[in-house]
Write a structure and sequence with these properties.
single chain; alpha/beta; five-stranded mixed barrel; two-stranded antiparallel ribbon; 29% strand
């Protein structure tokens, strides 16, 4: 419903969109396609593209910096939509290197407690209920994409560690059944859900989650595909209503 309302709205006025990324590298190719308007702060720049007024927020890597800068930004500015974008590692060979995916759910992989044998999430430990707002059965959900994201839907997990050891990778894979890992996605979902702002997470697979070997990564391909995909999304959200 919210998207149809926004489309009607944008046939008269432009949308105001916040793009959230951890690093400048992840958005450099994309913003090269935008018209620069001005600098709002050290972390936040304003652009224009396809009738959209776009703010780009560079938060820094990890959930702490992301939560801080995104919360401050949403306290200051109002947006129709937030898009978190960047790179992701894949737990599965079913996804190809360079493939762009729509992350529809997120979990925090490193927020909880260890006993002598296992890691327990906050929900498993009893410190939170699985449906405490804004969680749904222990996960954070993206806004329904309503057909404008033509990418495979995947489940994500967010960790402040980029995993590169067999033992830790196996634990995450078995514990969460996630297909991709990032270091910010769940934080973006949590904050946006709290503020009641529609949110998507679109990422490109740069590597498989195997023992750390940068020679097997393909960051340039992932960033190029991500740029093309986000351009397509931004054009779609401002398509006129007939």
């Amino acid at each position: 419903m919210w998207f149809s309302e926004i489309r009607t709205f944008t046939s008269i006025w432009a949308m105001k969109i916040l793009i959230v990324a951890a690093t400048w590298m992840e958005v450099k190719l994309l913003v090269d396609e935008f018209d620069f308007v001005g600098e709002k702060s050290q972390y936040l720049h304003e652009y224009q593209f396809a009738e959209n007024n776009i703010h780009v927020l560079i938060t820094g890597i990890g959930t702490v910096f992301t939560t801080l800068h995104l919360t401050n930004t949403l306290h200051t500015y109002k947006y129709n939509l937030v898009i978190n974008l960047g790179l992701a590692g894949s737990f599965t060979n079913d996804l190809e290197i360079g493939q762009v995916v729509n992350i529809v759910s997120e979990e925090f992989a490193d927020l909880g407690f260890e006993n002598r044998e296992h890691f327990l999430t906050l929900f498993e430990s009893g410190f939170m209920e699985s449906n405490d707002f804004p969680f749904e059965n222990g996960t954070l959900k993206a806004t329904h994409y309503n057909g404008i994201l033509n990418f495979d839907n995947v489940r994500g997990v967010t960790s402040n560690i980029s995993h590169g050891k067999n033992a830790s990778i196996s634990v995450i894979r078995e514990k969460f059944s996630a297909q991709v890992e990032s270091m910010e996605g769940a934080a973006v979902f949590f904050v946006c859900k709290w503020f009641g702002i529609p949110v998507y997470e679109v990422r490109a697979v740069s590597n498989y989650l195997i023992p750390h070997d940068p020679s097997k990564w393909n960051i340039p391909l992932a960033l190029e595909n991500l740029k093309k995909s986000i351009i397509d999304v931004l054009v779609k959200v401002t398509a006129p209503v007939h």
